[in-house]
Amino acid sequence: MIISRQKEFKDILKAIEARDIFIIGCGKCATKQHVGGEPEVLEMKKKLIGSGKNVVGWAVLSSACNLSSWDEVLSQNPGIEKAEALLVMSCGGGVSIISALAERAVYPALDTESLGGVCRDEVVLEQCGLCGECDIQVFGGICPVGQCPKGMRNGPCGGAVEGKCEVDERKCVWDEIYERLKSLGRLEDIKHIHGPKDHSKRGRKN
Ligand code: SF4
Ligand code: SF4
After folding, report:
1. pTM (2 d.p.)
2. Which structural domains are found in the chain, ordered by start?
3. From ligand 2's centre to the CA of 126, what distance in Å?
4. In ligand 1, which atom is closest to the CA atom of 135?
5. Using CA positions, which residue lies closest to atom 1 of ligand 1?
6. pLDDT in tens, 64-95
7. What per-residue string of b and e applies to 177-200 under the rule 16 or more CB within 10 Å gives b?
8. 173 in ligand 2 pocket by Cβ < 6 Å?
9. pLDDT tens digits, residue range 12-37?
């Protein structure tokens, strides 16, 4: 699951010059996280109208980053043709795909953060930092690149207080790595010094 959060409404408003706007939500990750499903799209519509914009329509696509046919989207949502701009409440993947197809200005309503997941029906944030060179097994299956705010591969940073990260409210991921390695009987592994990531492996290759 792609983890995104809503931008501040004032920033969305500042970015969009157009008056006639069609809002697109996403039925997958953004719906699950309550940042781009139907209730959030309707809330956005209300705020835009309250700010003097003309919302010509809205839709929640089944998956904004996985569109089988843009013509089908247009035939089901004729309001899109009347819009000067589309406001997309999905991850950056969905915004990019729609931008490539829509032939009009497309604006993101969300900021895309990381790759997370769902565990026992709960959304879990920042599980993976999309580094392109996965070695999560050496940390007992807990990724410090994705889960430590400083991306410390050789941690902890020394700032944790009673197991809490100094950056925010989360538990220090290195405490969790320690406990996990201990429970796996592999505590010796924590002494290993990890070299830097090969950043050339990140991103697309063709
Ligand atoms: S090591 Fe890289 S690919 Fe593996 S979980 Fe962490 S960030 Fe993601
Ligand atoms: S306290 Fe722990 S989780 Fe927070 S930045 Fe330092 S090493 Fe990372």
Report:
1. 0.82
2. 2-113 (3.40.50.2300), 129-194 (no CATH)
3. 14
4. 1
5. 134
6. 999 989 999 999 999 999 999 999 999 999 99
7. bbebbeeeeeeeebeeeeeebeee
8. yes
9. 999 999 999 999 999 999 999 999 99
